[in-house]
Prior knowledge:
Helix content is 30%, strand content 20%. By secondary structure, the chain is of the alpha/beta class. It has one domain: Rossmann fold (3-Layer(aba) Sandwich), CATH 3.40.50.300. The chain has a seven-stranded mixed sheet, sandwiched between helices. The relative contact order is 0.18. Residues 1-5, 62-68 and 91-99 have low confidence and may be disordered.
Amino acid sequence: MGSLKLAENLAVRSVAFIKSASRLSESPDTGGLPELAIAGRSNVGKSSLINRLVNRRQLARVSNTPGRTQLLNFFKVNDAFVLCDLPGYGYAKVPYEMRSSWGEMIGGYLERRDPLRALLLLVDCRREPGEWERDLATFCSTRGLALVTVVTKVDKLSKAQRFSAMARVARALGVAPDALLGFSSETGEGLDELWRRVTRVLNLGEPSAPA
C-alpha cells in the first residue's frame, strides 16, 4: 500500500527567500507588499506550518532543537505578499542575553515595520497561552494588526480533548473559540482555511483555485 498523499496548498505558485535580518534596520525594502509575520513559542511547530502553508518541504528548517531560528527571515510568496518568520520565544537553554536580544528584535519589528499587516500567532494545543501570547494578542489590537490565532498539533488530541483545549486557549486569550483555527502539519488539517484567512487579512482578493 502506498503512502497517503497529504494535503498541499496548490494556491502557492512561487516562494523566494529575500534575506535574514538581525534588527529592524536590516529589514528589506519589499516595494510595499503587505507583510505577514508568524510568531510562536519554540517547538510550537512554526517551521512545519510555514513549510505547509507555502507548499515547500524545507523552506523553513524543521529541527528537533527548539530555538534554532535566531533572525527575522523574509520570504516573498506569489509575488503578492511577504512572510516574516520571527524567532521562537521561550527556549530556556538559549543564553539569557540572546533571549533578551530576540525580544528586542521582535518588539522593534512588530512596533515599527511599516508593511506589516497581520500576525499569525501559534499556540500548542497541549499548553495554555502564557503572558507572552496574551501580550501579543493585545498588541495586535492596539496597533491595528489583524490577528490569526492558530492552535497547532491538534492531531495529538481526541475530539473531546480538542474541544476542551480550544476552549482553554480562547479563554486565556479572551477570544471566541470559533476565532481560533485548529491546525496539524502532520495531516494537513486546517491548511485550506489557514490560506483563506491569510488571503483575507492581507486583502489579497479571493483565494486562488487549484489549476
